Amino acid sequence: MASTNDLKNGMVLKLEGGQLWSVVEFQHVKPGKGPAFVRTKLKNVLSGKTVDKTFNAGVKVETASVDKRGMQFSYKDGNDFVFMDSETFDQIYITPETVGDAANYLLEGFDAVVAMYEGNPLYVELPAAVELVIEYTEPGVQGDRSTGGSKPAKLETGYEIAVPLFITTGEKIKVDTRSGEYLGRVNS
């Protein structure tokens, strides 16, 4: 148990029938009249849904101890993703639903953080940006600016993103794992 006065970003709360909610933002408010309260933005750990919730200041809330572990993606077994714990070398199987959009950027050997609660994987967190090789993209035509200066490119993971026209097949680029945006070339 913790008090609403102790909330921090990233803290996981157990609310409403055992659902897990991660604190995205919080703000202590002391109005001129009436009691103080805490305004929060919470994200459901499993569904990803975000809600705004207000708590009275000093109210007790149940916290969930979520264990975040550094793991390495080993391989894909059928539909499941196999990760290896970087400390114990134990392997765990994680469903595609739990991996979510992170699957678009996963290559064998990539490091990730896996959040566990009571022995069950909740979600997979990748670094903000990863470096991947362009598997295939059409050659850019000089003067072709009708599409706003971008073209589709297939990454080595099989995921397709938009890249600038000057990018060629075989180049290594940096990709934002949160938005799927091209961030720039990687100079080898």
From TrEMBL:
SUPFAM superfamilies: Nucleic acid-binding proteins, Translation proteins SH3-like domain
Similarity annotation: Belongs to the elongation factor P family.
UniProt protein name: Elongation factor P
Domain Elongation factor P C-terminal: 130-185
Pfam families linked to this entry: EFP, EFP_N, Elong-fact-P_C
Lineage, uppermost ranks: Bacteria, Bacillati, Actinomycetota, Actinomycetes, Kitasatosporales
Domain Translation elongation factor P/YeiP central residue range list: 68-122
Keyword Protein biosynthesis: yes
Transmembrane segments: none
Gene: efp
Biological role stated in the UniProt entry: Involved in peptide bond synthesis. Stimulates efficient translation and peptide-bond synthesis on native or reconstituted 70S ribosomes in vitro. Probably functions indirectly by altering the affinity of the ribosome for aminoacyl-tRNA, thus increasing their reactivity as acceptors for peptidyl transferase.
Pathway assignment: Protein biosynthesis; polypeptide chain elongation
Compartment(s): Cytoplasm
Any GO MF annotation of the entry: translation elongation factor activity
Natural source organism: Streptomyces lycii
UniProt keyword terms in alphabetical order: Cytoplasm, Elongation factor, Protein biosynthesis
Highest taxon of the lineage: Bacteria
